[in-house]
Amino acid sequence: MFQCINTIEKIFLRKKFSCEKNFLAKIKGIVYIKERRKVFAAFFQFLK
Fold it and tell me: What does the alpha-carbon distance between residue 4 and residue 33 come to, in Å, rounded to a whole number?
């Protein structure tokens, strides 16, 4: 019985961890896109 609970806990922690990783990846992606937009905006201003 204890082994079963331990396994469920591990799966739960792994899922939680992967969710947090995905969340961080999304935040990083949003920040990255915003930074890229700034660079592109500056570049287009330069072209004009």
Answer: 43
Cα 35 to chain centroid distance, Å, stands at 16
Q: What secondary structure, in 3-state letters, does 27-38 show?
A: HHHHHHHHHHHH
Instruction: Tell whether pTM > 0.70.
Output: no
DSSP tag of 48: -
What's the chain's Rg over C-alpha atoms? 21
From residue 38, alpha-carbon distances to 2, 15, 22, 30, 31 in Å are: 54, 35, 24, 13, 11
